[in-house]
# Entry
Amino acid sequence: MKKHKPMSYVLCCLLFTVVFHITVSANSTSLWISERRPFDLLPYVIIITLAIEALSINKIPKAGKPFKVFCVVTITNLLSFAFPYLFTYASFASDFSSGQMSGQLYSFKEMLDILPTYTIGAAYIFITIAIEIPIVYSTFKNSVQNKKLLLWTIIGANVITTIIVAVIENILFPAPW
# Structure
């Protein structure tokens, strides 16, 4: 069992992401107060996130491979940022195809304008745990002297960047129901 513990952890996180993705809106709609949406902020958020996480992993546990750290952090962050949007779009499209929604099939951009799609949410937290932490840790665990420091640096950097993005989104893009 200990041999398969990391894979079990990842699979449980993915399962929880699917199971706990329940949207409750009571047939109400959201009203964006501003013309911009959280998706508009995504490129800037990604740059800030990449800088904090890559610098942290390279400097604190001293991974010693800045280009490799940047590439791995970039790939895992792009996956974790993209997945919640794609999952929301897939859910939105399945509601349409099952007859729960009437009218036309919306494009991805139209869906972003209609739904209150924040980047940071329950799905994002689980995806970060399931994708970023295991991949980055397994990539650099043999490059550092202190593996626990590496793990805690990855977790800490992700917690910090997640909080930063959530705060920025909720301050700049309020969408009351």
Q: What stands out?
A: Residues 120 and 163 are 9 Å apart (CA to CA).
